[in-house]
Specification:
2 domains; alpha+beta; 3-stranded antiparallel beta sheet; 22% strand; 231 residues; Antioxidant, Horf6, Chain A, domain 2; Glutaredoxin
Amino acid sequence: MENKEMQEQDVVRLPLIGDPAPAFKAKTTMGPLNFPEDYKGKWVILFSHPADFTPVCTTEFMTFAVMQEEFRKLNTELIGLSIDSIYAHIAWLRTIKEKIEFKGMKNVEVNFPVIEDLKMDVSRKFGMVQPNASTTQAVRAVFIMDPDAKVRAILYYPLSTGRNMDEIKRMIIAMQKADREQIATPANWQPGEDVIVPPPGSCGTAKERVESQDENTYCLDWFMCFRKETN
């Protein structure tokens, strides 16, 4: 009975989409980090990996590092995390830079902070430790937070599957566009493609809908209208 009560006390509610992201302070490869204070006005991608010196994680870190400036152009910063020490992180990142070549990427220097989370404090706050996968490693989790430090997207990958960084970038672009223009994006949307505009308050035929909108709007039915992207 006591063990059950202790386990219940240790359970931390996973932050959900729309929730304020949990605040935390941590040691990283680039010095102390205070989230969200250090990232005011920024979008943030916080991602966990199972362990340093593992092959899938190495390919992910190299890809994120190469794309870091692309994310920064989207006002987005990267933060990595695993349940490893600063010393392990530094040794691993040095090995990546000096020895690893993957898909034409070589001499890759990781210039975003990687959190030391030996006590699993941050991992537990974000639900990154999932006992049925591993009790000693974080799963491949991705949390995307907006400039107000609210959780906007959550992705989980199994230990065996590497993440798609282009998809993460696409999500950032889509969410920023939706915030800015009050639109939605359809399945498989790519930047520059037509977007979905919210339906009006009253129903009508597709023809009536088109006539009530500007020339860049077209409808497939009363509930489904698109705006042509002209840029």
